[in-house]
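Class, study these two lines:
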Amino acid sequence: MGTTQLESVPEPKYWHLKTVLSEALDSEFSVGEILPNERDLAARFGVARATLRQALEQLELEGRLQRRRGVGTTVAPPRMGVAVGTDQDAWPGAPDDAWQSVDCALAAPPAAVATALETGADEPVHIVRRSRVSHGQPVAAELLYIPASSVPDLTAIDAPSGAARTRAVLRELQRLELEGQDRAVELGSARADDAKELDRLPGAPVLVVTTRFLAEGRTAALSVATYRADTCRLTFGDTGGVEIHHGPERQAS
């Protein structure tokens, strides 16, 4: 059999260096440790600094490294595991919810969201904005869309604005009996608003998890959560307890 065009393309030098560097990170460095400067690394591996930079940029993209202004390049902590298993059925705002509320507004949602919620194109819904932090850095941003029909007893007195409105909306939502959730995961690019909140550049790779919360035979709420692809890994199953650690001295659990 003949080779395809892709099979005949040699592996880029920086890609091979990335593999060598990744093995060095596993065996020689610990989380948070600062790497030697580019000149010393390039000399150690016998490559041009331009090739080294490409390899470092790829490792940063994959979440193995972090570049911190005024500090240097450090070994990144393990990615935060995000379980999307069947045992995670709970309303937003439940006691063990890891999300932190930012604010809440009443506005018309995007057309695709309005279709999913079966609301009118211009019908305002409650939009709760939340964030998630791990190891002291933002890892995810969420927009939670809740139609007025899901929180019928909410009044302006109960929820005047800001944090009070957020608490009131989530409290009323939890009065419904949750019948289940549907989730979808896709790779995307960070929009300007998400990038700012996640401390990334616009267009950076992200994981978008869309969750439909079902109650009374309909979509009672819709969550669109954007995770940093360089700091998160999604786990599928009932517990999300699978951990894969780097380093020869550690074992998968």
Summary: The first strand starts at residue 65 and ends at 68. The chain has six helices and ten strands. The beta strands are 65-68, 72-75, 80-83, 100-107, 125-134, 137-146, 180-189, 205-215, 218-228, 232-235. Residues 1-6, 239-253 have pLDDT under 50 and may be disordered.
